[in-house]
Each structure stands twice: as C-alpha cells, then as structure tokens.
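Translate sequence into structure tokens.
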Amino acid sequence: MLFITDDGVRLYYLDQGQGRPVLLLHAFPLNADSFRPQIAALAGRYRFIVPDHRGFGRSGMGSGPTEMSRVARDALGILDLLKIPSAVVGGVSLGGYAAMALLREDAGRVRALVLADTQVGADDEAGKQRREETARAVMEKGIELLVETMLPRLLAPGAAPEVRAEVAAMIRSNKPEGAAAAQRGMALRTDSRDVLHRFSGPTLVVVGEQDSFAPPARAREMKQLLSAGELVEIPGAGHLANLEQPDAFNRALDSFLSRV
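Result follows.
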C-alpha cells in the first residue's frame, strides 16, 4: 500500500493481519520484507503495519539525511491515515532508533515498545565519522559495497545459507542514495536514555546472543532504564534475530503481545 508523506514522499507499507495493531520498523539496510517471518506466524492474532523507510525498498527518496525523527513522523502519518490512535511500536537496529524517536515525538501513541538488536546511545565522533565514510563509499561504489562489508557482521557465523541470500537480496533492493541518507541520519540521532527512563509502558528488549553491532550488554543497559521492561536473549542469532532465529523471536514477541 502507498502513503504520501507531508513532504511529498511516496512510502510503501504492508498492512496485514487482524487484531491489536503492531507497527514494526526495519533495520538498516533492509526493508519491510524483513518482518515476513513475524507476519506469517502471527498475523492471525495481530495487525502488522510495516513501512519501507524512505529511500529503502519500494519507497521514494526524501531530501537530506534521513533523520530518525523523520522516520518516526512518517510512521505516525501512516497510523493517522489508518485511523489507529495507538499501537505497539517495535523496531530492529535502525528501526529501534526510530521507535525511540517516535516515543519522543508522541509517547501517547505508543501502547507498548519492542526494541530488538538496537541501542540507546548516540554515536560518538568516531562513529559519526565512520558513518560518513560509509555514506560516501556507497555513493561511489554502489549498494553492493554494503553486501560485501555488512553481511558478514549482520548475521551470526552459523546463519543458514538461505537467510544470508535473503538478507543480501534485501540489501540489493535499496538505493545507494537511500542508504547514504540513512547513515547520515543515524549519525545525527540523539541519546534516548531520557525517553526510555520516562516511558512507563511495557517494553520487550530482544537481542541476538552473537550480535556484534548492538551486543547483549547494551540490551541490558536499555532494560535497566525501563520501569516495565523485560529482556530476551536469542541463542544462535546475530544482529537480525527476527530473521536468523524466527521461531524463538516469534515466541518472545507473541508472549509479550498477548500480555499487553
């Protein structure tokens, strides 16, 4: 389905299932299809709203860096279009940053929160510089650069070959301009410790046991900030636990959603 944002960008989103609305925000550098395992298993009980972020998948490009607040406002616009006053809001990696940005934008719209393989802090100066270098390199060399450099770190060493192929295909579906804009937007994100500390709603924190980008120690830090948080560590998963170990991830998600 298509949604036109307030600045004229055409966004594609999935709207599948029935029941309590669950807004899911995808990781960098993937797209909405990364949540197909959750939709396939749980759409009989929950309504999943899953956008391709601007510059990713089937969505159009915006202008300038894709800041996390912009991704959050895009998602809120889709909820407005669908006349959904509040939803469970979840995200993986970049999607987690955007979920926390949405919480800052309008906490009243967040019935509960799911933060998977993400972290609460902002980039330090070295991290910002690495993102800028990646943005420039992908613009120069193309999206295949991210397949070569990120795929080995996104997944655990034991990830199934079909999962590796699926993730590579999703990366290749994206525009270099979108990936570069997102890298620059992530570099601009703010620390979200204050918004998590204030949030009193139920929160599920999920992390892959072998996540090298946002390791379990950072997941534990997020859990400690939350007044109603729970933590699930997924064995055998790296940075994309919902794709690498979907059965374990789905059990944790279903258990959490059934209690919200």
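Note: The chain has one domain: 2-259.
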